[in-house]
């Protein structure tokens, strides 16, 4: 039984009776679904289709986190974030994507990756899943020549405890960074064993790539 006392088998099934794509972009599509609602009505739901993304909490032997200071046009300002990026192609290995982004944005690579936390970024309107990895055993490597916003990007080290304080104090507010830092602090406090880098992620989005494949066909 559910907490409300209703048998799960009797709960409403939200069925899509109509669906249309209103925008196709390089990294997102906008789809509008007409969905049946409890009571017999219908409602339109705007869905942003996304390929999925990864982020990296890179931690050194001194318990410092490698963060980037990056301009984000949607906010019109620079904010502190973790190295992160999209899966570039359908079926890309998320760990490889994470290490690629770490190298491109900071000039470091990691010998060990563990899954820190999986985030349904904003499930009210997008299918985007973001997997955050804990990266350790770091070493410096050559960083590729940056372009666009990355040419303005700066990276620096911040103590994990200080970063957690800033997140709770509202001076670090990137959702991924806040979730990752608090997840690591909680895992340590609870003695939780983190998942392996290849742990399954059943909510990885598929609609964006499936639609792109249909278009190419």
Distance between the termini: 45 Å
Q: At the fourth CATH level, what is the homologous superfamily of the largest domain?
A: Nucleoside Triphosphate Pyrophosphohydrolase
Provide the succession of SSEs: EEEEEEEHEEEHHEH
| Quaternary assembly | single chain
CATH architecture of the largest domain: Alpha-Beta Complex
Overall structural domain count = 2
Q: Helical stretch count? A: 4
Helix content: 10-25%
Question: Biggest β-sheet, characterized?
Answer: 5 strands, mixed
Number of strands: 11
Low-confidence stretches: none
Shape: globular
Overall residue-averaged pLDDT value:
92
**Can you tell me the CATH topology of the largest domain?**
Nucleoside Triphosphate Pyrophosphohydrolase
| CATH class value of the largest domain | Alpha Beta
Structural class of the helix and strand makeup?
Answer: alpha+beta
Strand order of the largest sheet: 7-4-9-8-11
Portion of residues in beta strands equals: 35-45%
Radius of gyration: 20 Å
List keywords for this structure.
five-stranded mixed β-sheet, alpha+beta, 2 domains, 217 residues, single chain, three-stranded antiparallel β-sheet, 11 strands, 23% helix, Nucleoside Triphosphate Pyrophosphohydrolase
Short recap of the structure:
With 217 residues, the chain is an alpha+beta fold. The protein has helices spanning 94-106, 160-169, 175-190, 207-216; strands spanning 16-24, 28-36, 42-50, 53-58, 64-72, 77-81, 84-86, 108-120, 129-140, 154-159, 195-196.
How would you sum up this structure, described in words?
The protein has helices at 94-106, 160-169, 175-190, 207-216, and strands at residues 16-24, 28-36, 42-50, 53-58, 64-72, 77-81, 84-86, 108-120, 129-140, 154-159, 195-196. The protein has a 5-stranded mixed sheet. Helices cover 23% and strands 38% of the residues. It folds into 2 domains: 8-49, no CATH class; 52-196, Nucleoside Triphosphate Pyrophosphohydrolase (Alpha-Beta Complex). By secondary structure, the protein is an alpha+beta fold.
